[in-house]
Design a protein that fits this description.
The protein is mainly alpha-helical and about 180 residues long. The protein has two domains: about 70 residues, Orthogonal Bundle (434 Repressor (Amino-terminal Domain)); about 90 residues, no CATH class. Helix content is about 55%, strand content about 5%. It has nine helices and three strands, in the order βαααααββαααα. Strands 1-2-3 form a three-stranded mixed beta sheet. The radius of gyration is 19 Å and the shape is elongated. The termini are far apart.
């Protein structure tokens, strides 16, 4: 079980390799966006000799053209990440937490929901949404070959996704009244 900064260092190295960039090339690109990190520091980050900072996670995300979330949360939704030495969660749960969809079990869910900015509250009380996001993620990862579903599981996932989507849409339909559309 890794901490988020350990996931980030592995992802930086993997993304750099995927793009076929050396550490010097990555350092050059970081310089171009106004956040210089030299090759030696990149090597220390990738080896774990130095912890990657939040500011660095953000700039690496810019340079690699990805969301910062994808640098700190593993691709495999079942992989467990340590949030603190005593709190851990699966990658799927962490993605929902980071996106503001749901609190971690150790948090006060009611307080968590009250501090969500108004523009992010549309799905706050939707019982289907976290499940729906998980289903989409499972299908996406299966398509990428990250983990493989059996044909039966794949069929059931498609059927569940369709049923869940319509259920979620029906549940949300009452939320759109004339005032919410600016009429």
């Amino acid at each position: 079980m890794e901490l988020a900064h350990e996931v980030a260092r592995h992802r930086v190295k993997a993304l750099r390799a995927r793009r076929q960039w050396g550490q010097e090339e990555l350092a050059r690109r970081l310089q171009e966006v106004g956040h210089p990190i030299n090759r030696a520091t990149i090597a220390k980050i990738e080896s774990g000799a130095r912890v990657v900072t939040l500011d660095e996670v953000l700039v690496f995300a810019v340079v690699f053209d990805i969301s910062p979330l994808h640098l700190i949360v593993p691709e495999d939704p079942t992989e467990v990440v340590a949030v603190t030495p005593s709190i851990s969660a699966t990658a799927a749960k962490l993605r929902r937490w980071w996106r503001g969809y749901e609190a971690l079990p150790e948090q006060d869910a009611n307080l968590y929901r009250t501090l969500i900015p108004a523009q992010d509250t549309f799905f706050r009380n939707d019982t289907h949404f976290g499940w729906f996001v998980d289903t989409i993620e499972k299908q996406s990862l299966d398509g990428l070959g990250v983990h493989t579903l059996s044909e039966q599981e794949r069929h059931q996932t498609r059927m569940d996704a369709e049923a869940g989507a319509w259920s979620a849409i029906e549940d949300r339909a009452g939320d759109w009244d004339d005032d919410s559309r600016g009429e």
